[in-house]
Amino acid sequence: LPRIGVLAVQGDVREHLAALTALGAEAVTVRRPDEVEQVDGLVIPGGESTVMDKLVRAFDLREPLVRRIAEGLPVYGSCAGMIMLADRIADGRPDQQTLGGLDITVRRNAFGRQVDSFEQDLDYAWSDPAVSGTTGPTGRTGPVHAVFIRAPWVEQAGPAVQVLARVGEGPAAGKIVAVRQGNLMATSFHPEVGADRRIHAEFVSIVREHRLQQSGARQSPERE
Ligand code: GLN
């Protein structure tokens, strides 16, 4: 089983643990530096990025996290997690740091106070065809029902960044809300709140693939 950690200093940790467990991963909380070393992949949940940043530094997690990201650890960031993975924040607090890794600039609370939270169906560019098909691990097809809660958007993305989803309608139409760059993946929205597990399944698939590469296997992984 792939062992996938959920950074558990702040935010909606439990929902991610449940989603990962439902997909057959061994899901564990990560709070200490040594726990960072023991996972095959990591989820950084939604929450409040300024608080998460402070706690990550206070718990001496910053150095091991930045190092493992640089070494190629698969990491999925949702909402505040996306902010933590961004190389740049458009309007961060002066002392706010991110872990970085994704060549993107994010804007925090980008959708504005009047639309604190909203939901929208999004077209999603799946990386793993097995995930999006009816025979995939979740049996779901069609658009992703995305839940946004004081969400960031991606203001600018470098050439190595794949855009996976954009807002489809409304005043923010066209804004980038899901990206991937190598083993790093991030969404502005919260897939852990609904019953659709495809986003997590995509991430588990990235983790599996990375583990196989690491163990020197040459063949592509078997799909369930
Ligand atoms: N607005 C929060 C931040 O800036 C993110 C909100 C969320 O994760 N739901 O960190």
From TrEMBL:
An annotated GO cellular component of this protein is: cytosol
- In which pathway does this enzyme or protein participate? Cofactor biosynthesis; pyridoxal 5'-phosphate biosynthesis
Entry-linked SUPFAM superfamilies: Class I glutamine amidotransferase-like
* Enzyme Commission number: 4.3.3.6, 3.5.1.2
Q: Which Pfam families match?
A: SNO
Q: Which CDD domains match?
A: GATase1_PB
Residues annotated as binding L-glutamine are 47-49, 108, 149-150
Give the catalytic activity: L-glutamine + H2O = L-glutamate + NH4(+); aldehydo-D-ribose 5-phosphate + D-glyceraldehyde 3-phosphate + L-glutamine = pyridoxal 5'-phosphate + L-glutamate + phosphate + 3 H2O + H(+)
Q: Which residues form the signal peptide?
A: none
Molecular functions (GO terms): glutaminase activity; pyridoxal 5'-phosphate synthase (glutamine hydrolysing) activity
- Which residues are the active-site ones? 79 (nucleophile), 190 (charge relay system), 192 (charge relay system)
User: What keywords were assigned to this record?
Assistant: Glutamine amidotransferase, Hydrolase, Lyase, Pyridoxal phosphate
Give the UniProt record's GO annotations in the biological process aspect.
Answer: L-glutamine catabolic process; pyridoxal phosphate biosynthetic process; pyridoxine metabolic process
Q: Which InterPro entries match?
A: Class_I_gatase-like, PdxT/SNO, PdxT/SNO_CS
Q: Kindly state the subunit structure of this protein.
A: In the presence of PdxS, forms a dodecamer of heterodimers. Only shows activity in the heterodimer.
The record ties this protein, via PANTHER family, to: PYRIDOXAL 5'-PHOSPHATE SYNTHASE SUBUNIT SNO, PYRIDOXAL 5'-PHOSPHATE SYNTHASE SUBUNIT SNO1-RELATED
The UniProt similarity line reads: Belongs to the glutaminase PdxT/SNO family.
Q: What the protein does? A: Catalyzes the hydrolysis of glutamine to glutamate and ammonia as part of the biosynthesis of pyridoxal 5'-phosphate. The resulting ammonia molecule is channeled to the active site of PdxS.
The protein's name in its UniProt record? Pyridoxal 5'-phosphate synthase subunit PdxT
Q: Which organism is it from?
A: Terrabacter aerolatus
